[in-house]
Automatic annotation (TrEMBL):
Gene3D superfamilies: 2.60.120.1440, 3.55.50.30. GO terms for molecular function: sigma factor antagonist activity. It comes from the Bacteria. Residues 331-397 form the Protein FecR C-terminal domain. The lineage of its organism: Bacteria, Pseudomonadati, Bacteroidota, Sphingobacteriia, Sphingobacteriales. InterPro entries: FecR, FecR_C, Ferrdict_sens_TM. This is FecR family protein. The chain crosses the membrane at residues 84-102. Keywords: Membrane, Transmembrane, Transmembrane helix. Residues 185-281 form the FecR protein domain. Signal peptide: none annotated.
Length: 398
């Protein structure tokens, strides 16, 4: 949309009074850019002091009011003088407005530079977790810790050089010892993930802010039952005589041997189970009666996803790449809303997200490596009009 000087003047007046809409501000900024182009200024010439002289001269020339204008009659001179004063006043206000826009742009760039500087210092998460043994002992699974950590119920617990926690059966315990072995819990904080290999050979990788509770030994148990909060990817070892069951706050997933992903964070509206291989049965836990729970259960085939909202489970085709991208070391967004995008960032970079005026409705599509700093992650946000700044570990969305 082209604007004449009067229209620009009107918008500048609204901008300066704080009543301009977002659309009007964009129009004004486009007009500002057009004025620069009309003057054919180089980048080095676009400082404000030079710009105001050029635009002042350009305004007068377009109004035919330059000092080189030929002589005219006294009557025309009076009208021209009046017109000159009108345009001079208009030009003065235009220049003031341009100053505001220039300063606003410079301030925005300075603010963004400062934000990026802070964000680049916030590094990606690590391969870490905390192991809590049945006796209450807590072990921090850091990079520096390697070798045998403990032994209980005939199972040796070892941390490998590759950063995996492995449970290995070294002797079969007596039934009494096995039943009294208790539970271990492996948990990740914000910015952590970890993989554990259970005594049956099943591999489970935990995402950030997640925990898995499991028996120290599966010996003498009719099924292999674990409890999950947060998100985990499972590669369950086949054992047709001992079903593997994953319990979350809202559902139970039963398998014999398969690969699947469960996302069951407390701050998510739904629990999602995505099947890659084999088959699983997903049952809502709301129903106390086993028959009623079985009646509402669903059977998933590979490439399907179960979405549970409250007590209702719906099966839909799954985007497998999106579901397990975190396990492969990627953020993967496909028309994902801002709240979910920043929820992922908060878990991985240990951030607190603060929305000053509600959650914007922007959606994002992109793939970002999880080993990138926060500075690289937020470049995705720069593709939108979202304004934000970072204060310590707080990301404030304005």
């Amino acid at each position: 949309m082209m604007m004449n000087d009067q229209e620009a003047l009107n918008l500048l007046s609204k901008y300066n009074s704080g009543t301009a809409t977002d659309l009007e501000i964009k129009l004004l900024e486009n007009w500002y850019s057009a004025e620069i182009l009309k003057q054919e200024l180089s980048e080095s010439e676009q400082d404000f002091s030079h710009l105001k002289e050029e635009i002042w001269e350009g305004t007068l020339q377009r109004a035919k009011l330059t000092e080189h204008e030929p002589e005219i009659s006294e009557k025309r001179q009076v009208r021209s003088n009046k017109r000159w004063y009108q345009f001079a006043a208009a030009a003065a206000v235009l220049l003031i407005g341009i100053g505001y826009l220039f300063n606003r742009h410079s301030a925005a760039q300075n603010s963004l530079s400062k934000t990026l500087e802070i964000a680049n210092q916030i590094t990606a998460g690590k391969n870490m977790a905390t192991l809590t043994l049945a006796n209450g002992q807590r072990i921090i699974l850091s990079d520096g810790l390697k070798g045998k950590l403990a032994e209980e119920a005939g199972v040796s617990i070892t941390k490998t050089n590759d950063g995996e926690l492995i449970y290995t059966v070294v002797s079969k315990p007596g039934k009494a010892a096995a039943s009294n072995s208790g539970y271990n819990t492996i948990s990740t904080a914000a910015g952590e993930n970890y993989q554990v290999i259970l005594p049956d050979g099943s591999k489970i990788k935990l995402n950030a802010l997640s925990s898995l509770k499991y028996p120290a030994s599966f010996a003498f148990q009719t099924d292999r039952k674990v409890e999950l909060t947060g998100e985990a990817y499972f590669e369950v070892a086949k054992d047709k005589n001992h079903p593997f069951k994953v319990k979350t706050s809202s559902q139970e997933v039963e398998v014999l041997g398969t690969h699947f992903n469960i996302c069951s964070y407390a701050d998510h509206a739904s629990t999602q189970t995505t099947l890659l291989e084999g088959s699983v049965k997903v049952s809502p836990l709301h129903y106390a009666d086993a028959k009623e729970r079985a009646a509402h259960a669903v059977l998933l085939k590979p490439g399907e996803k179960a979405i549970q909202l409250a007590n209702s489970i719906t099966m839909v085709p799954a985007d497998v790449e999106e579901a397990i991208a975190w396990k492969e070391g990627w953020f993967y967004f496909k028309s994902t809303n801002l709240h979910d995008v920043l929820s992922e960032a908060a878990k991985w970079y240990d951030l607190e997200i603060i929305y000053r005026d509600g959650v914007p409705t922007d959606r994002f599509t992109g793939k970002i490596p999880k080993n990138a700093s926060l500075g690289k992650f937020i470049k995705l946000l720069q593709l939108s009009d979202i304004k934000f700044n970072i204060e310590g570990r707080k990301m404030i969305i304005n």
